[in-house]
Amino acid sequence: MRFKRTGAIFMALLLVIPTHLVSAAKQEEKSQSEGSYSEKSEVVYATLEANGDQKEMYVVNHFSIDKSGKIIDYGPYTSVENLTNLTEMKLNDHQVGFTATEDPFYYQGNLEGRSLPWDIDVSYQLNGETLPPEKLLGKDGKLEIHIDTKANEKDNPFFKNYMLQISLPLNSDIYQNIETQNGTIADAGKNKQVAFTVMPEKEESFVVKADVKDLEIESIEITGMPASMPIDTSNADDITNDAKSLSDATKGIDVGIDELNKGITELNQGVVSLHGGSQEYKKGINKLDHGSSELIEGSKSIDESLEKMSQSLGSHSGQMNVSKLQELQKRLTDMANGLKVTENNLADLRDRYSNAYNRLDKSIAAIPAYHISDEEIQELKESDADSKVVDKLVKTYTAARATKDTYSDLKKTFRAVDPTLKDVTGSVHDMRIYLETIVDELDKSLDHTNLDESMKELQQGLNALSSNYKSFHSGLVDYTEGVARLSKSYGELHGGITELTNGTHELKNGVHELHNGTSELAQSTNDLPDQIQTEIDQMTDEYDKSDFDPVSFVSSKNKKVQSVQFVMKTESIKRDKDKKDDQQKEEEKKGFWDRFLDLFR
Predict the structure, then answer these.
(1) At residue 230, does pLDDT exceed 90?
(2) How far from 143 is each of 123, 195, 243, 569, CA to CA, in Å?
């Protein structure tokens, strides 16, 4: 917008200025003396094309006069205009001269060929096609507005110390489904407004996307102002102290996870040992079960042989000669030797079973017996703990409890195996001794002449042995059936122990990974307080421009510059009638003083 004051406007201004003006004589007298001012400010207004190209520029200068008289200002203006009174201003070789009273003084200087500190580029894509602004009017489709900001000269003080505020007003009747990144979308009445911020020394690119209908584009407003954001670092100590607490807590967590890792490793080793013992026990009980058929067959053969020998001896006792008795003696000796082998095998099996059972019992006893409620498990799942590790812990706990409960149910059966093996072994031993005694007695009988008497005693002994062995054989059958049931039940228990072993192995790996993560976290947060302090210092250096001393935009000769601001505005893309209507509405809405004060807001 280009502000020009016609004679009529300044006449209106004179109507509201107090009438006690100084006389022409006094004014002439003051014009001869040098005046002074305490501070000066500049507001740079620039009109841009719809694509961001610079079009027009002027500067509104404001002086706070502390002594009336002649003031000299500097700037490469093409023309100047007094905005305070009707006093004539002189422009000569970039030097502006005017006479001011002690009231605030304003004047406008028009510039040509002077570049802004920033290069603003605005481009438009409609339905994926880049179009010039003049071809967008009234179109429908998907619109993208690209805004790029760069430095015209990166060493200029305004680029280094000023921030840009970019604002795009969007009519909700035209724009729908508005999207953007690195910006904010705010309500502005029934419409929307998209805003972006460019920090000092930064070159940025922004994109606004929307669905449009009967497209019109309002002016994009860009304001450049000092990044006067002094950063309060008084709370920096609190932040670094909190960071130290976090660092210490992280170390504590790492130490705790390290202890957990060691505990889980020991648990896994114990469960592996349990699995080894269980595997050994399972092999033993399976071997015992598989050998039961041979044991039964052998026992049955002994039973039948005893019965046959007893019957044979009874029916042929009168006809028995020495050779037949010797043959009987040999068969009984072989039977006794066979029972001795069986006795030794049972004793060996009992020892191996006892060792495996004791190892299994100790391993399962080492599994904790505490109970974790469903509420406690749910609370753990809802905590900040690693969900994968929690799932593995719960799975391992469930498997451990199932193993312990199953073992508890079968423990009586396990305990009964050893006494039964002991009894069976004892019975086999007793029958072996009995057979050996019969063989010895038979051997002695062969040396006596009274063979009939000896044969009667032998028959009685074999009858008693055969009868007792039938009872033993019946018990042995019951025992082997129990072993078969135990072998089947233990297969299920061993499956649970195997699952527990796999679970603790996964848990060990999970906790190990968790420990690696907490160790890395503890290491990375070890110097967190120093890192935060460094970041605070860097942020302070980067964004705190409160120590920036303003300089004039138009001339380095201008002194006592208090502030410089930039107001840039692109041309709208609207129908000519709409533009005129907007200008007329703005004129009707604002009075003279409102429009005059807009220059300095």
Answers:
(1) no
(2) 11, 17, 45, 20
